[in-house]
Input
Amino acid sequence: MDEKTQRSGGFTVVGPDEGPSYWQPVPANGFVRNIVSQAATGSRSNFSIGTQTVAPGCMIREHTHDRNEEVIFVVEGEGFARVEGVDHPIRRGSAVYIGVNTRHHFINPGPEPLTFVWYFMPGGLDGFFEQIGRPRQPGEPAPAPFPRPDNIAAIEARTVFGWTDKSYDEQG
Output
């Protein structure tokens, strides 16, 4: 390690088409980009940050995180953050803080993608996305909608979820 890195604590720069990216299964469809995390940077603090694009007419089903806090910052599109059963309109520039064990989900009822930055403390959301998604290369066309893994409940339990809405499992 050189003297500058020791003094500054290190740094990581990730370009706009860099970082692992994964197509997401139904009901969200769209894709996720895992930008940086404690694992990728060696930081002292446990965090992860990335982006998620929710396809038009799709959603992220309702869930909680029993050990994590989450911040969402919308960079494109509009939709709703349903938090504890109440719909809150979100659009470019909106921010949402979600505390531990707070029920929430995101809905994109519109014709355009909804994209937001997610910041997760402690980290781990990136690992979940990697386990349920399919590798994505920037610029490639979206695949046909595909189902979540058969062991989705086990993946959720061992990663960052406390509770998830199972009603989609009955429909999907």
Notes: The chain is about 15% helix and 35% strand. The two ends are 50 Å apart (CA to CA). The domain at 18-134 is CATH 2.60.120.10 (Jelly Rolls).
